Each structure stands twice: as C-alpha cells, then as structure tokens.
Amino acid sequence: MSPFSAGVQPVAEAALEAVAAEAVERARAAGAEEAEAIVESTRSFTARALNRQVETLKQSVTHGLGLRVIVNGAVGFVSTNDFRSAALEDLTRRVVILARFATPDPANGLPAPEREDPPGDLRLFDPAVLELPPDRKIDMALTLERVALGYDPRIRRTEGAAVSSHDGAVALVNSHGLARTWSGTAVSAHVVALADDREGKQQTGYYGVSRRWLGELPPLEELAREAARRAVQRIGARPVPAARVPVVMHPDIGAAWLSDLHGAFSGAGVVKQASWLTDKLGQTIAAPSVTLVDDGRMPGGIATEPYDGEGIPTRRNVLIDRGRCAMFEFDAYYGRRMGTGSTGSAQRSYASVPGVGHNNLYLEPGTETPEAILARVDRGFYMDDQGSFGFNSVTGDYSYQAQGHWIERGEKAFPVEGVTVASNSLEMLRQVVAVGNDLRFEHAVACPTLLIAEMTVSGGVEG
Q1: How many C-beta atoms surround the C-beta of residue 347 within 10 A?
Q2: Is the dihedral of CA 40, 70, 85, 91 positive or negative?
C-alpha cells in the first residue's frame, strides 16, 4: 500500500522523510547553498447531515512538498504534489533559478539541529480515529441533528451537523542535518440549530469541538443540546440604548479576542513596528490576573506539535505574565532580525514559507465561577456571539457586532442583538477585573469567562 493511500493504516513517516531528503540532496546538487524540504500527507473524512438525512460525504487525500533554498543570501521557494524523481529534478533546478533572481537578505538562513530534551508523549496520535468507520461517522452526524431538533418545538430546522476525522504526517529535512518527522490525528463534531423567532426570523445556535483523541469527544447528546440551547435563549432578542457598561465575555468571545491579540506578539509586526505592543516589552499592559500562554507542548492539545514549521522544538511561551508583556514570538528569520533567535513559533503548510503563528493559545484561568462573575455586574452586557470583523491589528481597536444578554442586578434579564461592542485592546487588558475558572480546550484557542470593567455598547435603540 502506498503511504499516500486512503486506507486505515497510518501514514508512513519514513517514506515522507525519504522524499524530503531526496529533494534537499537534489537542490544542493543544483547549486543551493542551503535547502529545506517539508513534506505533508493528510487524509480526512467528513459526514454532514441535513434535514434528517445524509447531505454530503467528503473524503480527501492530500500530499505535497515545499522546497525552500538559499543562494547568495536570497530565498527561492516552490511547492509540488508530484514526488517522482524526474519532477523533483526539474523542481530543484527551477527553485535555484528563482533564488538567484531574488533579493538577498543577511537574515535569511536555515536552522541547524539543536541539542534538546525529547518531546515525550504528546498524545498526538489516536489509532481509534483511523479505525472509526464511515458508517459510524454518518450515524454520529445524524444523531447530532436529531437531538438538536428534539430539544425544543421551536427548533424545526438546522443548518447542518457534521463529524470529521483527520490524520496526517509531516517530515522536514534541511541541509544542515536537521531531520524531523511527526504524526497526528483529530476528530471534530459540530451542529448549528435554528430556533423560530417572531416575524419569521430565526435565531442561530452553534456548538462544536475538536479533539486529538476520539474518546475525549464530549457525548453527542450534550453537544447537540448545547447548540440548541444557544439558539432558544436568543429568541426575542432586541437592541438596547447606547451605554458604557461592564461586559462579561463568554469563553467563545474571549477566545476570539485572544486570536486577534496574538498578532501583536508576532515578531513580524514588532520588527516592522506595525504592532500596538512594539514598545511595550517588559511593561505592565494588563491586569495582574492576566497571564497569556502559547503552549506547543501541551499533551493532547489540538494544536500541539513537537516541532515548528522549521523543525525547531516547540515550547511553552508566556506572552503576558501576570499583566506584564513578557515576550514576543519569532520564527528563525525574525529571530535573526531581532537578535533573539526563534521561539519555536514558525507556522506553515507545505505550500507556504514559514511565518510567525501560535499553537495552543490560552488565558490561564482564575478562581471565580461564571455565575459569581455575572453576580458582580449590576447593569451590563453579557456577550456570547459576535458578527462581522472589527479588529485593527495595528492599533488594537476592537469593535464587533454582538449578541448576548442584558444584565440587571447580576442576572441575565433578556436577550440582546443589533448592537456593537467597542473599546481598545490595551484598555480591555488593563480593565480585566475577573477571570473565570471555566477554561476548556475545545479548539486551538481557549479562554475562561472574562469581565471587562467598561466597554461601549452602541448602535441599538436611542436612550
């Protein structure tokens, strides 16, 4: 069986490494001073249910190679899906020619192998994901939709339910003797419930999770009921007058904000002075309760990897340490530009050159329950969904269309929609007055419930 076939056997890492090593050897022979090849092979299967029947079944198998070379300090890059020796021979000649026409930069270079502690068992690969048969994934998707539809008579439709499984392997080889291989699996499930509201309107409730291990996926009934509950609780939503009030962020909203925030910690933005944190290293930028972590070595994390996109070991990077801007993150290129070295933060696919990214990004939990945080607020807004994009990565300005609930005397009074929630991220970080104890890792970014002391809620009815 080919290592790239769609069977249930795991992808052969050794076969990928052999292809990568051949590409590097041919690139060096063609005139590259340094060469790096990354080879990926991935497989996925998705079952989607709609209207109580199977809507689509999708199976894909992808493999590709990315080749980066350096000639006279300039970079050339190409990618291909053709691993034949003749194709690699032609590819390596072309990439060397591209490099010779590129602009030299003294910061260009490939990392050499480092002495390191073994990564240990990161719990990235679950054989049960490979063994999960298509019929079972179809039944799981149908169950998700059936349970959501049965939650409340006002839920008569969904926008679909889906279950997906993924597995893949990566090999990375460079001309300095670095050779890395690793494999992983993932399984995910989600459903979108629609609840009937007034005047023919419908309210949407989404819930989904991803896990490395099949046995760690929440019960399907629990997942479906949560999506349905979110839809039903929005029935009767209305605008509110403009006001500056405390805002409680649901974990989903907090996680979305952290995703926006991460760009400010990227070495690319810092070097270009395009980050609103460029001059803040070592300074207090947040409340003492705020500690922001990017952990590439979290066992079982959906974004855990033993190595980054350049083969450098990943690690646990603390970006904000109890309110202090503790560090920025770099790939090899920007690490050279800043004189810091890489922080193991290069992200890429085979079809792209590396860039600075994150692994498992999260805010460390506090001690208060979500209910206790809500009880702190006499009058404010509980934000649990957001609409169109509204984040300025240069200034940190935050402005999103929002849904949620109005808070009166520590309780959710009624559902709200048609408003915009706005502030500046630096002010928001400084005004975090409570951090919940409800941190859950459902995707690559996670956040507990947050209470921001004051934000602008606007765009609703006139006061």
Answers
A1: 17
A2: positive
Place of tokens 């989607």: 48
- 8 Å CB contact between 211 and 126: no
CATH number for the domain whose boundaries are 13-228: 3.30.2290.10
Structure tokens, 66 = 């990315």
Nearest in space to 375 (alpha carbons), one of 445, 463, 449, 444:
449
The torsion defined by the Cα of 110, 115, 117 and 120, in degrees rounded to 10, comes to 50
- Phi-psi category of 300—alpha, beta or left, where left has phi over 0 and alpha has psi -120 to 50? left
- Written in H, E and C, the secondary structure of 75-108 is EEEEEECCCCHHHHHHHHHHHHHHHHCCCCCCCC
Contact 197, 236 (CB under 8 A): yes
For the beta carbon of residue 46, count every other beta carbon within 10 angstroms.
Answer: 17
Chain segment 46-97, per-residue pLDDT in tens: 999 999 999 999 999 999 999 999 999 999 999 999 999 999 999 999 999 9
Place of tokens 């005047």: 199
Compute CA distances 111 → 20, 40, 283, 335, whole Å. Answer: 16, 20, 31, 11
Instruction: Check whether 8 has a pLDDT greater than 70.
Output: no
Q: What is the pLDDT of residues 389-415, one digit of tens each?
A: 789 999 999 999 999 999 999 999 999
Residue intervals of the chain classified under CATH 3.30.2290.10 are: 13-228
Q: What is the mean pLDDT of residues 191-213?
A: 95
Contacts of 229 (CB under 8 A, 6+ apart): 151, 205
Per the structure block, which two tokens stand in for 298? 């979290």
Distance CA 206, CA 110 (A): 43
The answer to whether 333 and 249 have CB atoms below 8 angstroms apart is no
The answer for residues whose C-beta is within 8 angstroms of residue 333's C-beta and 6 or more apart is 107, 108, 109, 354
Q: What is the CA radius of gyration of the chain?
A: 24
DSSP annotation string for 231-285: HHTTTT-B----EEEEEEEPHHHHHHHHHHHHGGGBHHHHHTT-STTTT-TTSB-
Pairing between strand 450-458 and 432-435?
antiparallel
Task: Phi first, then psi: give them for residue 41, nearest 5 degrees.
Answer: -140, 125
Output phi, psi for 320, to 5 deg: -120, 125
Instruction: Provide the angle, in degrees to the nearest 10, between the axes of the packed helices 134-149 and 220-232.
Output: 30
